[in-house]
Amino acid sequence: MGRGRLRIHLGAAPGVGKTYAMLSEAQRRVERGTDCVVGFVEHYDRPRTMALLEGLERIPRRELEHRGAVLPEMDLDAVLARRPQVVLVDELAHTNVPGSRNAKRWQDVEELLAAGIDVLSTLNIQHLESLGDVVESIIGVRQQETVPDEVVRRADQTELVDMTPEALRRRMAHGNVYQPDKVDAALSNYFRPGNLTALRELALLWVADRVDEYLQWYRSEHDVSAIWGSRERIVVGLTGGPEGRTLIRRAARLAEKGAGGEVLAVYIARGDGLTAASPGELAEQRTLVESLGGTFHHVVGDDIPAALLAFARAANATQIVLGSSRRKAWQYVFGPGVGATVARDSGPDLDVHIVTHEAIAKGRGLPVARGARLGRSRVAWGWAVGVAGPAVLAVLLSAFDPGLANDMLLFLSLTVAAALLGGLRPALASAAFGSLLLNYFYTPPLHRWSVSDPKNIIAIVIFVAVGAAVASVVDLAARRTHQAARLRAESEILSFLAGNVLRGETGLEELLERVRETFGMESAALLERAGDVEPWTCAGRAGTGPALERPDDADVDVPVGDHMALALTGRVLPAEDRRVLGAFAAQAAVALDRRRLRAEADRARTLAEGNRIRTALLAAVSHDLRTPLAGIKAAVSSLRSEDVDWSPEDRAELLEGIEGGADRLDHLVGNLLDMSRLHTGTVTPLIREVDLDEVAPMALGGVPEGSVTLDVPETLPMVAVDPGLLERAMANLIENAVKYAPAGTPVLVAASALADRVEVRVVDRGPGVPDDAKDRIFEPFQRYGDAPRGAGVGLGLAVARGFTEAMGGSLNADDTPGGGLTMTLTLRAAATSATEATEATEATAVTEATAAEATAATRAPMATPTAPVSLEGPEPVRPAESEPAGPAEPERHPS
Questions:
Q1: CA-to-CA distance for 144 and 130, rounded, in angstroms?
Q2: In angstroms, rounded to a whole number, what is the distance separating the alpha carbons of residues 129 and 133?
Q3: Exposed, middle or buried: residue 467 (CB in 10 Å: 0-12, 13-18, 19+)?
Q4: In this structure, what are the phi and psi dihedrals at residue 271, rounded to the nearest 5 degrees?
Q5: Which among 755, 722, 745 is positioned nearest to 844, based on CA atoms?
Q6: Which pTM was predicted?
Q7: In which compartments does the protein localize (predicted)?
Q8: Distance of CA 350 to CAs 305, 308, 661, 748, 888, Å?
Q9: Which of 206, 211, 618, 729 could form a disulfide with 800 if both were Cys (CB 3.0 to 4.6 A apart)?
């Protein structure tokens, strides 16, 4: 049984028509005879969406009861038992009701795919896990419901359901997305043109990147070497000279003219002779190209034009930008130069731009030949001059006789030329062949292979010796030049690697990508194993088709220690490249160790935080919990004593002390348990519509009568909260304020409506809190000023903020005008958040910036900016784990 296929309808925002497109696809498949059923589809009472559901078989939903509420979910077991060919599962990022088999709906989808069932699903771009920070910066809301990128990347098809912001806003205004009473709030907040345009750009770019990945995979699988100009990619060839910055800026301007243009700056280090490149200049050019949105690449290549063209074709580039040559005119006798060679060999599918700059023809040193040592073409010319040259010279000298001395000098000049061009062997061949010709044609007896005059024998021997000496010197110089250039290239690469470490670019995958790119390989992987007989595992990889089973399967493997190896595929590297590759391998092992150490540090930090909390809990048990227990025990012992005849008033006082101590213990233990749940993330409020004037009076049960003035108008809109969590949060705030308010000055608890928010302000006239301590008072186990022992374990405000944020609200501390502290609790009005609580991802939201602007115009001076409404709506249920209770022990404001 094969794995099912996943098709995702991706949209930029709610209302673009993802569910409609998914249902339309389902109707087409049913018409073709495909067995297609509806597992879970949210239609939100939209007539057109409901019309498309007609005729489709629907699997009955499973109803789960949680804290008195019955909530529907997809019946995964029923779908698996039905085993259709295709199932529709809406809202991939949805959080399942507690008690379901899986926590997230995408996990349900994974089970369906593993069972061989095809799935059609929907997703908004803001729910991708990797885009959380970007989405938050756009709309001011941190997404709580997300899908791992890998799940979406593995989808067999991703269809973009697109709509312009103007068209979506018209659809909203016509009532095709939300109910009419919610349209104005939605259009003025989340569905603003700027928000929609930014989210649409995110969706388009993400889909474009996935298409580009598929295109690269297809070209690699089918060995497509031709350039497909589907996207402007501009490669900038850098030499390390001053003209590089000009080239980068010109390429950036060219990229701006095309949609989605990309700039790739590449510096090619040639192993057989590099012109000097300034490391400082290259560093500045790297910074420049990255600041313009491009990427910098460092590549090793024996032939600079060929390496540059290979890099451009591998990147599917459409244009190459090069600078006009800095060589002087006479230096062109050594070759046409890189620019002319690249332009000649680029072919019709790759445009080459030669850009002028200020350093043209100002010199850059003589070029060195390509190839190993002297280069093949140069050696070939050496053999031609050394062998054919003497024969041609002998023919020319037959017409006239300049004398033996001049003849020997002419033949010697050919030997020297052969040595300069081809090195030792062509020069020796030229000397031997030339000496034979001199003996046969020009030394008596002529036309015989003998020499009668001893002086001529000496001359011929000197001729051969000079030729051999010149050839050996040229060959030795070529060897030394090659070695020096090779070492210079290696030092540049190692310097580049060290620079990456200093810049913090130490990620294992990024480093492996650099290795693959630098040596022109297809893939690179770091393999490791626990022991000599254990199987190899992949710790990191880059490129396509890496060797994952064992290092021996790779073209190149470099051992790192006893149980780790760097494996590369693509081609066999020469032995001299392994020195640099060994440095990369060692750095890869260091990067892996650093990643593991960072993970260990994170775990240690978590353990340290847990130890700190446990230490504080022990301190609380040792004093703050023992004090009321001691009082209760003393009172009970007194009442049970038969030696004292207690009066009714004394007995009532002792019983009152017992009751008060028990209440205090209950509050302390409740807050300890609540803080434990907050730290473990198990507080999940059950959001529902509540009247604030019903909850607020219940929060006053633990404070003296007359110590609080309550101002909660009955005309306030309902709020979307968990009543139990709200009561406990307000009780903690009120008792904290009452304890430190001056005697005879009641605490004011006032509420007011602001746009789609309701604010509750707890105002006291106590000593207040300094600005630098306003955030610290919400940390657990914090007590400030002269708070006496027994004043609580310092959890009241921490629990209040945790409960408030769990309900989608915010809690902030501000100065009270005239002295004191004001706690501002901001809650979502039910008019906008009730729909969010049932529609999950298809919801409106208010950004933090918009709320702050509205607040600045209408709120009281003591208030703080409101928190944004979550786009997620409920993760359909967030039930509170604790029942409503009285207030906790108060916090002490720092004086």
A1: 12
A2: 9
A3: buried
A4: -80, -10
A5: 755
A6: 0.39
A7: Cell membrane; Membrane
A8: 14, 12, 84, 75, 73
A9: 729
Q: Give yes or no for a contact between 236 and 308, defined as CB atoms under 8 angstroms apart.
A: no
Q: What is the DSSP string of 528-543?
A: E-SSTTSPPEEEEEEE
Give the pLDDT of residue 855. Answer: 31
CA 360 to each of CA 241, 329, 363: distance values in angstroms, whole numbers, following the listed order: 11, 11, 8
**What contacts 374, CB < 8 A, 6 or more positions away?**
382, 421, 422, 423, 478
Taking residue 402's Cβ as centre, other Cβ atoms within 10 Å add up to: 11
Best CA proximity match to 845, nearest among 826, 867, 877, 864: 867
What tokens does 427 get?
A: 């020069």
DSSP string, 485-513: HHHHHHHHHHHHHHHHHHTT---HHHHHH
Asked if residues 509 and 543 have their Cβ atoms less than 8 Å apart, the reply is no
SS3 408: helix
By the 10 Å C-beta count (0-12 exposed, 13-18 middle, 19+ buried), 838 is classed as middle
Handedness of CA 861, 867, 868, 869 (dihedral sign): negative
Characterize the bridge pairing of strands 537-543 and 556-559. Answer: unpaired
Residue 760: name the closest of 696, 835, 831, 666 by CA: 696
Which residue in this structure is represented by tokens 């099912």?
Answer: 4
Q: Which two tokens stand for residue 513?
A: 């990508």
Instruction: Give the per-residue pLDDT at 364.
Output: 46
Residue with tokens 């989210």: 199
pLDDT at 258: 64
528 touches 513 (CB < 8 A): no
Give the pairing type, strands 157-161 and 6-11: parallel
How many CA atoms within 13 Å lie on the side-chain side of 402?
12
Query: How many beta carbons lie within 10 A of that of residue 536, not counting itself?
Result: 21
Q: What is the largest CA-CA distance in the chain?
A: 156
| Encoded tokens for 579 | 């020195």
- Tell me 791's DSSP state: S
Q: Which residue has the tokens 């209760």?
A: 632
- Residue from 472, 226, 435 nearest 350 by CA: 226
Could you give the CA distance from residue 156 to residue 86 in angstroms, rounded to a whole number?
14
Residue type, 171: R
Rounded Cα distance, 146 and 250, in Å: 40
Per-residue pLDDT, 862: 34
Q: Phi and psi for 472 in degrees, rounded to 5?
A: -65, -40
Instruction: Identify the three-state secondary structure at position 292.
Output: coil
- Give me the sheet containing 708-711, strands edge to edge: 708-711, 747-754, 757-763, 821-828, 810-815
> For the chain, percent helix, then strand, then coil, each to nearest 5?
50, 15, 35
Residue type for position 226: A
- Residue 731: predicted pLDDT: 85
Q: How many residues does the chain have?
A: 895
Write the DSSP symbol of residue 865: P
> Rounded CA gap, 617 and 605, in Å?
18
Cα dihedral 332, 338, 339, 344, rounded to 10, equals 100
Distance CA 36, CA 83 (A): 10
86 three-class SS: strand
Mean pLDDT (10-residue bins), the chain, 895 residues: 88 90 93 93 85 90 81 90 93 88 91 93 90 81 83 90 89 78 72 86 85 74 62 85 86 77 82 52 84 83 82 84 75 70 83 80 42 62 85 81 76 82 80 79 73 69 75 73 66 65 65 78 86 84 80 81 84 68 80 83 76 59 64 84 82 85 74 62 75 86 83 88 85 86 89 85 88 76 48 66 85 86 89 43 34 33 33 35 36 38
Residue 241, pLDDT score:
79
Q: How far apart are CA 827 and CA 347, in angstroms?
A: 65
Q: What is the CB neighbour count within 10 angstroms for residue 452?
A: 10
Q: Phi, psi (5° rounding) for residue 223?
A: 50, 45
> What is the pLDDT at residue 223?
66
